């Protein structure tokens, strides 16, 4: 049973609707428009609370057909039913939809109730499951139809049957005959007694000896020649027990250095009675300080316009050659790829979309995401009327670029500086939690974000909640020392801008985070950065601990740190992280990932597909992009630059 069915234009004018149950369906339809249609996401199904919504777009008349039903129901006829309604409605009111504009649609009444109910009745009857067939009785079976006469075999029939069986046996026997003969010969040779042969003479006469005896004799001669005594038994000689295996000798490289040079290069202890040298030098301070004040710079990408021009210049070459041979054939060949004033069909789009999908996968977009993107572009363009000089390839490419830019542009802007200032007015710290899998650069990018915050005048407390990985606390301690050397307390009226809150290893991460937030509130810190342990998305105990940390401390921002090198793995990571946070949360509305930090972006050249995969899966923005190994290598995402790199051939 359907809850509702509605037909409306892309401008928001409802042309006709049907309600199977009482209540308003405005909320689910608006959620579908906001989350799927405007975001140009693939798939024709959308779940909102207890309802499943399916939709179909008509690009020729700019219409949307939406059907809603309870998600616990399995209605197999819905897809075919919505297609039938789409065809019937479009064909019946084609003239009104073409002639009337927006105001005309408001004044037009669409009497479609009877036709809709007729199609619905037919669809429901065709989908009803048939009753299971009753089990046959013995009288109805084929065995009951056999008579005694049919079971009696005559001599002629048995002879024929036996003849056939004998023929089969003869054929099999012929195939197996050679193998049997070989086996008989071998057994005869083995059973024959070996003749006794006199020992070999000095002249080397080996006549009458078997092959094994000849080999043994030659072996004895060889060993006697080199002065080694060997027993005449067929067994191999045992190794001498007195000889012990020597250990592997250490290889000395020519330029490998020595123990004295290793002592000279050891800076772990004091040098000449002084303390160890700090890694941050004065020239480093002068180079880094003042670079990150204000908003982050956008990600830059140099589009190779020269390469595109060269491609455009090279492309017409085969057309000129064909023009010399066929006269005007080159011109007509060029125009053959153009679609003039006709609506695009799925057959026109499929070849181009297949090439686009392969291109996206080659650029590191997850295969599932690439297929959904191409499907959404196909729905957007199917039935659309093209201009006279518009090629299918250029139209599909432009539509795909618009979809990618729409995906990368955030639905909500994450402004950490503004939110931190708002938290200052409320006299509480702004809390950011970092999570992700192992080895993606959580601690390093946390230090970059910390440097950006202290460059903008905020004091930061780093909570060392990675109590699992060895060296995690020491790594944060080193970053804290480096950052304080870049902004020493003497230049900030004696105030330490960066401080580390640690409780060692093996402790409860949620408890450490709670204590750190309380300490920051009492000491007047502006921002708390919570570093968590790296964990794989399949590790249930660690995912439970992460969900507990987020549920207990309720951070202002939960950032997922992912590297730009992953492809299909990005989808699995984000889906399972969000699923784990939802499953292990104690509230009805669980806290999920709020944003993404994309790391190692400088290592991928133009294979930027991970940005598309992560944003498409979560619907959340990429807040930071890590582009290097220094504190100033932090950027904000530029959607057009990423799409330009993604569409580069």
N-to-C span: 49 Å
What percent of the residues sit in helical stretches (DSSP H or I)?
40-55%
Number of strands: 15
**Radius of gyration, Cα only, in angstroms?**
40 Å
Based on Cα principal axes, name the global outline. Answer: extended
Largest sheet data: 8 strands, mixed
Strand order of the largest sheet: 10-9-11-8-12-13-14-15
**Low-confidence blocks of residues:** 171-203, 270-285, 304-339
Supply the helix-strand structural class: alpha/beta
Helix tally equals 25
Question: What share of the residues does DSSP label as strand, in percent?
Answer: 5-15%
- Mean of all residue-level pLDDT scores: 77
Describe it.
The structure is a single chain. Helix content is 47%, strand content 12%. The chain is of the alpha/beta class and 649 residues long. The chain has an 8-stranded mixed sheet, sandwiched between helices. It has a 5-stranded antiparallel sheet with strand order 2-1-5-4-3. Strands 6-7 form a two-stranded antiparallel ribbon. Helix 15 packs antiparallel against helix 16 (367-381), helix 19 packs parallel to helix 20 (472-486) and helix 21 (509-523) packs parallel to helix 22. The chain is extended, with a radius of gyration of 40 Å.
